[in-house]
Amino acid sequence: MPTYVRKNHRDCTLAERGRFLDALLELKKKPSPKPHPANSHGTIYGDFVAVHYDAFFSGVAHGSPNFLPWHRQFLIELEIALNRTTVARGKPFISLPYWNWIDDRDVTASPWVPDWLGGDGTGLLGQVQTGRFGVPDSRLPELLSEASMAKLRAAGKIRELPYEEGEAIWAELKTKLNELPPSRKEVWLVHQVVDERPFLIRECVLPLSESLPFHHRETEAEKEARRANEGEWFRDRGLGLLDVLDHTTYDVFASFFESDQHGMPHVALGGHMGSAGSPNDPAFWLHHAFVDKVWADWQRKQRRDHPNEPPYLPVTGANGTLGYTDLFGPWSTHSAKTLINTTNIHHPKAGRISYTYR
User: How confident is residue 224, by pLDDT bands cut at 50, 70 and 90?
Assistant: First the structure.
């Protein structure tokens, strides 16, 4: 693989956006040679969702210092898959763009626009209606009975219906999708997700700007205002990006970063991003590319200001937490040690990997 740059999504050309989205859509249709048991669609993209789902609940990918290097490898694996699509053949390398949620905080602006990731889940099912992954309400009658459509229109959203009625509509939708002839199934496959809710769901907490991480160090007055909202769950620490970057030991930095600044965008976007199946939403990749960038920024700061601090803790694994040289599943090809330096990663399938952020 070449030396490459992961860019801010704002700096991607229309051609770069198009290749990225086209390659993702190809992975959503292409059968996996060995589908993951939890991959209900049997596609290559479905494997990525299923792997994350598994790792989320096993504790390998979340809730421990493994979080950052595990996801670093996860992003690399997707980039390898993207660049093996027919879309990528003979074209410039497809690298993951990142969403800087410090700067881009408006749900009506990029990347939440029709020619990029699509917008909020404004549909009757809570589904995204715009963009390459969206399903507009106007297409739902192809899959739902007139009676079900009438109920949805009267309620405004499926979540406003009684639970039993909503579940019946989801079941009807799933049955109809399963009964489609092969030619029609492929048309709908790119819009489906690996979940009991077949379409991409977003439920943004509005205004989005008040739900996303901020840059400055949180003031005491801001913390006290937050205390009133968080109650017994109050986090007695600053939630600004600069606050978490101040930590100088890896395990403390990784723990707070995962639960706070990384977690806030997942909650803010809601829907699939707020679940273990978050890679169902293509926003996952842009969000986690920025998470990886923040870690890379912290690493650079550590090398400059605290060169004697270990780059990863714990050095030796215990109680389900992997140590510095323990290999991450399900790939068993890399450890935190081999993923520490983004400009010198050796992958058994792709050779030397070297990337930076701009």
Answer: very high
* Residue 10: CB atoms within 10 Å: 14
339, 69 Cβ separation under 8 angstroms: yes
- Residue 320 pLDDT grade (very low, low, confident, very high; cuts 50, 70, 90): confident
Q: What is the C-alpha separation between 302 and 297, in angstroms, rounded?
A: 9
User: Under DSSP, is residue 357 helix (H, G, I), strand (E, B) or coil?
Assistant: strand
CB 37 within 8 A of CB 304: no
CA distance 115 to 41: 26
Q: Specify the 3-state DSSP secondary structure of 110.
A: coil
251, 336 contact by CB (below 8 A): no
The angle formed by the CA atoms of residues 345, 347 and 350, to the nearest 5 degrees, is 115
Please name which of 147, 110, 116 lies closest in space to residue 131, comparing C-alpha atoms.
116
- DSSP letter at 321 equals B
Q: What's at 198, amino acid-wise?
A: P
Calculate mean pLDDT across residues 104-121. Answer: 97
In whole angstroms, give the CA distance from residue 285 to residue 241. 20
CB 272 within 8 A of CB 280: yes
Helices 250-257 and 67-82: angle between axes, nearest 10 degrees: 70
Predicted structure pTM score: 0.96
R_g (Cα) of the chain, nearest Å = 21
CB 84 within 8 A of CB 73: no
Q: Rounded to whole angstroms, how far apart are CA atoms 95 and 205? A: 29
113-166 residue pLDDT tens? 999 999 999 999 999 999 999 999 999 999 999 999 999 999 999 999 999 999
Q: Within a 10 A sphere around the Cβ of 323, how many other Cβ atoms?
A: 17
In this prediction, residue 3 carries a pLDDT of: 92
pLDDT band at 185, cuts 50/70/90? confident
Residue 327 backbone zone (phi > 0: left; psi -120 to 50: alpha; other: beta): beta
- The answer on pLDDT for 84 being more than 90 is yes
pLDDT at 234 over 80: yes
Q: Do 6 and 357 contact (CB within 8 A), yes or no? A: yes
